[in-house]
Design a protein that fits this description.
Elements (H helix, E strand, L loop, with lengths): L5 E4 L10 E6 L9 H17 L3 E6 L4 H13 L3 E6 L10 H8 L3 E5 L1 H6 L4 H8 L4 E3 L7 H8 L11 E6 L3 H9 L5 E6 L6 H5 L8 E4 L12 H14 L8 H13 L8 E6 L6 H11 L6
Helix pairs in contact: 1-6, 2-3, 6-7, 9-10
C-alpha cells in the first residue's frame, strides 16, 4: 500500500470553533498515476489483466484527470487506451496540455458531440467507435464503478480514525462513495461538489446504504472548471504558506469551501477535520492558459 502522509494545516482566518485541520496527501502517492486515480484504477487494472481484455476505453472532458491517468497507465503497462472526449469542436483546435500529454502517452482520442457524449454507449456515434476495438474494457466517465469504489475505500483506515469529519472534492462521486463506505459511523463525510448540484448522491447510494454524509455545491463557483479571482488568490495564498499546491477544479474549491465553513463556525467545537488531497495538479498548465485569456492571476 502507498505510504500515508497527513499534514496539519494552519487555518486561514477566523476559527471560532477552534477546530483542527489536516490534509491527507494522496497527491504524493509515489506512482505515475497518483491521487484518487491511483485508487480508482488499481482494481480496474487487475480486472483488465485477469479477464484478458485487449484495450481500455473511457470518457472525459478536455481537462479530465481521469483521461490523463488512464493514458499514463496505458503507457507504463503497454495497454492500448482510447479516450472519447466531450466536444467535437475540439478536434479542430490545438490540444491543451492535458490532451496533448494523453496523446503523447499513446492514447487514441475521439472528439464527439455533446449530445453523443451524454448518451454514451446509446449513441450511434460512440457505438461506431467502440466497434473498432473488439475486446475493449469500458471504464465509465471519471473512472467510477464498483472496482473504483473498492480502491477508494482504502484511503481511510486506522490512521484516520481520530478525525471527526472527512472532507473531499467530488465529481462523479466514486471517491466519495469509497470514503463513506470505509468511514466510521460516528464520522461525518462531506463532499464538495466540483459541479453545480448535488446529484452525486444518486451515484453514491448504488454503492453504500450509509447516511453519514452530505454533499454541498457551495464552492463550485457556478459549475465545473469555473474559476474566479477569489479562488486563485486563495490557492496561491495557501501554496505560499504551506507549499501545498491545489488544482482549481477540485481540491482548490474544496479547501476554499471548507475554510469558509470553518470561519462561519459550521463545525462543532474542537472538531478534527481531515481533508483529502486527491491530486489533479496535472491540469494546472491548461487552466493557466484559460486564466491568461480571462486576465486573471495565474496559479503558482
Amino acid at each position: 500500500m502507498p505510504p500515508v502522509l497527513i499534514e496539519p494545516i494552519r487555518i486561514l482566518g477566523h476559527n471560532p470553533s477552534e477546530v483542527e485541520l489536516s490534509l491527507l496527501r494522496e497527491d504524493l502517492i509515489p506512482s505515475p498515476v497518483s491521487g484518487n486515480k491511483f485508487r480508482k484504477l488499481r482494481y480496474n487494472y487487475q480486472h483488465f489483466r485477469s479477464e484478458g481484455f485487449r484495450s481500455m476505453v473511457s470518457f472525459g472532458g478536455a481537462h479530465s484527470n481521469h483521461i490523463d491517468s488512464l493514458a499514463c497507465l496505458g503507457k507504463i503497462t503497454d495497454i492500448p487506451t482510447v479516450g472519447i472526449i466531450r466536444g467535437e469542436e475540439l478536434a479542430s483546435k490545438p490540444l491543451n496540455p492535458t490532451l496533448a500529454k494523453a496523446k503523447e502517452s499513446g492514447m487514441k482520442l475521439y472528439f464527439v458531440s455533446r449530445t453523443a457524449y451524454r448518451q454514451k454507449e446509446a449513441s450511434d456515434e460512440i457505438r461506431k467507435i467502440l466497434l473498432q476495438y473488439p475486446g475493449h474494457f469500458l471504464i465509465p466517465e471519471g473512472g467510477t464503478n464498483q472496482l473504483a469504489v473498492k480502491g477508494c475505500e482504502e484511503i481511510l483506515g486506522i490512521h484516520t480514525r481520530e478525525f471527526t469529519h472527512i472532507c473531499c472534492a467530488t465529481g462523479t462521486g466514486g471517491t466519495l462513495a469509497g470514503l463513506i463506505k470505509s468511514s466510521a459511523n460516528d464520522q461525518q463525510v462531506i463532499g464538495f461538489s466540483a459541479l453545480k448540484g448535488t446529484f452525486q448522491t444518486e451515484e453514491i447510494v448504488k454503492y453504500t446504504d450509509k447516511v453519514n454524509f452530505e454533499i454541498t455545491d457551495q464552492a463550485c463557483l457556478g459549475g465545473y472548471a469555473k474559476m474566479d479571482r477569489s479562488l486563485i488568490v486563495f490557492m496561491n495564498q495557501l501554496k505560499e504558506q504551506t507549499n501545498i499546491g491545489l488544482d482549481p477544479i477540485y481540491t482548490g474549491k474544496m479547501m476554499m469551501g471548507l475554510m469558509g465553513r470553518i470561519r462561519d463556525g459550521h463545525f462543532p467545537k474542537n472538531s478534527r477535520i481531515l481533508a483529502v488531497h486527491t491530486g489533479g495538479l496535472q491540469g494546472i498548465p491548461a487552466m493557466n492558459q484559460i486564466l491568461i485569456k480571462k486576465q486573471l492571476p495565474l496559479i503558482r
